[in-house]
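Milestone M4 deliverable, item 7.
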Amino acid sequence: MFVTRFAPSPTGRLHRGHAFSALTAERAAREAGGRFLLRVEDIDPTRCRPEYEGAIIEDLTWLGLKWEHPVRRQSDHLPEYGAVVEALDRQGLLYRCFRTRKEVLDAIGDAPHGPSEAARPGPHSAEEEAALLAAGRSFAWRLSLDRARDLLGGRAWEALSFIEEGEGPGGERGLIRARPETAGDVVLARKDAGTAYHVAVTHDDALQEITHVVRGCDLFEAAHIQVLIQTLMGWPTPTYRHHRLLSGADGRRYAKRDRSVTLAEIRAAGVAAADLRAELGF
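Output delivered:
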């Protein structure tokens, strides 16, 4: 059965771009006679707010969307994501990285062979790590691509792939060879901030038996590292269906950080949900 989800983060009010994505996923499920789920991805304690979660429900209900209950809230399941990190660590795939975000970004800017090289800082020596731990330095757990390649073997590494039924930002379609190296050694957890997006999303997609991931093409590159995590954990890889991003009259895509007009503001201006749906092609 076709199963998909809309998985917003409660870090602000929804805008037209979110509405388009949610409606696209819901229509795909309806046309396939499948299931449509709502998932609240609230693992970032510094940015996510309960009031925004309530606003998401309010906005989607106003749009006329219906989803299955209960809604999965990721912050209620942090131990499950921690177990994934532990499982990968037991396979020897993780290492502690004490470098700050600024240090990594500076290294990316100076890398002679491109950003992916600098985003693979590699582990510290045993002596350095012991000293840093003794000093109480914060660290992140990074997934070592070199170790993952060694574990899988060259043939399995080259076979990493996913099906794209939508379209990536460069027009990518069909069978896509996954290139996790483009993301570098991604952070999967932090000592002081719990799990990372790639762990939570792949875990939940497997747990909820998501067959099709319908989302914006700004997340196309994320599929490459997510396929690797799915393979390492023995989880199925869903079919991906990335869609175009909406832009405003100024040509800039709708985004929370740019304070795009929210659905609440559109509603307050007297626009009917049916009119907005029609504007968005639904």
